[in-house]
Amino acid sequence: METLKDGKESSKDEFPKVSVDEAYDTLKSMRVHGAGRIARFAAQALRDYAREAKGKNSREYWATVLKAGEKLRSARPTAVSLPNGVNYVLYGGRTAFESGASVEDLRTAVVNTADDFLTSSLDAVKIIGEIGARRVKNGDVVITHCNSEAAMSILKKAHDMGKGIKVYCDETRPKFQGHKTAAALAAYGIDTTLICDSACRVYMSHADRTVVGCDAIAVNGALVNKIGTSQVATMAHEARVNFMVAAETYKLDFKTLTGELVDIEERDYTEIASKEWSGHNPKVKFSNPVFDVTPPEYIDFYVTEKGIVPPGAVFSLMKELYQYTEGAQARPSTH
Ligand code: RUB
Q1: For 182-191, which contacts have Cβ atoms below 8 Å and span 24 or more sequence positions?
Q2: Is 196 part of the annotated catalytic residue set?
Q3: Which residue CA neighbors atom 1 of ligand 1 most closely?
Q4: Residues 289/265, Cβ–Cβ less than 8 Å
Q5: Catalytic status, residue 215
Q6: Distance between CA atoms of 216 and 254, rounded to whole angstroms?
Q7: Which residues line ligand 1 (CB under 6 A)?
């Protein structure tokens, strides 16, 4: 455990130690979810694997670490934080491997790079809270969607600043992550109301702003986030309500620079209706895409740990960060 500057306990061991296979299953079944958390969970699992992995020589050791990274990276397809986090950890090892490091030096390089990622990811959430909260006004009514630690960081900081905000959380079907958000914000002392997804438009007319998290940012400034985000954004746009997105820079999806699209995860239908669902008629088909794309026109700005970024500036930010993290993907840029 480490103590951060504000005295709060942070951690390079945020999660229980698990094997790579267990980590993969945990990610796939969403027992750990949320883009930032899955990145840290995978980075921690990879670090713990690298700490104990064996190899007769550097080449053999490095091959097993790469294989573990590949498995973790493949657990969920949409949140780019997962491959970006894993790639960042591997980048530390690869630099050492290419310079002819011994197994022990390679191990140290991977472990240190993972710890660097874990610390800076948590720092980024805190900085986003501080920057974003300045944009929240006294007495604001805010709508949020799903369960985002970065979005909640903004809301909690605004509350700490005495802004007297009121938050509406929608349920976020099918997995109801909005319930978690509502419970966490209410426990923090924020005036919180849980609404069902279909009530969002009713409350949008009374809202001052919308704050959501992010799984991936495309080069054109579009946002990929939990299914339903684009509906909320469309309503905010229609009602002329400010739409802000909390996003660490390791949510930038660099593959979109070369025209690749972000994969949208499709999950099992039982998340929508159980097999025992009383109305189930075998002729009914199900579809369960769990992320959607919000066009840049509906987004006022991203709040990153580097500052406020309008959707139109995403390309420049990608170019700037890609230069110094070439081959490593982005990492939180707090230090
Ligand atoms: C969670 C989700 C969150 C983003 C951002 O989806 O869409 O809004 O991941 O979260 P899931 P954070 O529950 O399917 O992982 O700000 O915590 O990174």
Answers
A1: 184/147, 184/152, 185/152, 185/155, 185/156, 188/156, 188/159, 189/159, 190/155, 190/156, 190/159, 190/165, 190/166, 191/164, 191/165, 191/166, 191/167
A2: no
A3: 34
A4: yes
A5: yes
A6: 10
A7: 33-37, 79, 146-151, 177, 213-215, 225-226, 246, 290
Confirm if 40 and 146 have CB atoms less than 8 A apart: no
d(Cα 224, Cα 143) in Å, to the nearest integer? 18
In this prediction, residue 334 carries a pLDDT of 46
Q: Side-chain half-sphere of 201: how many Cα atoms within 13 Å?
A: 6
- Specify the amino acid at residue 197: D
Question: Is the pLDDT at 185 greater than 60, yes or no?
Answer: yes
- Which tokens go with 301? 């700005």
Residue 230's SS3 state is helix
pLDDT exceeds 80 at position 4: no
- d(CA 111, CA 124) in angstroms, rounded, equals 20
CA angle 313, 306, 119 (to 5 degrees): 140
Any long-range contacts for 283-289 (C-beta under 8 Å, 24+ apart)? 288/174, 289/227, 289/264, 289/265
Task: Give the whole-number percent of the chain exceeding pLDDT 70.
Answer: 92
CA atoms within 13 A on the CB side of 72: 35
Distance (Å) of CA 74 to CA 30, 31, 257:
13, 16, 21
pLDDT of residue 235: 98
Q: 48, 170, 215, 253: which one is catalytic?
A: 215
**pLDDT tens-digit map of 7-35:** 444 457 999 999 999 999 999 999 999 99
DSSP state of 252: B
Q: For the chain, how many helices (H) and strands (E)?
A: 10, 12
Q: Which domains does the chain have, with CATH numbers?
A: 2-126 (1.20.120.420), 128-325 (3.40.50.10470)
The two three-digit tokens of residue 201, written as one number: 């438009």
**Residues 159, 136 contacting (CB under 8 angstroms):** no
Question: What confidence tens digit (pLDDT) does each residue in 252-271 have?
Answer: 999 999 999 999 999 998 89
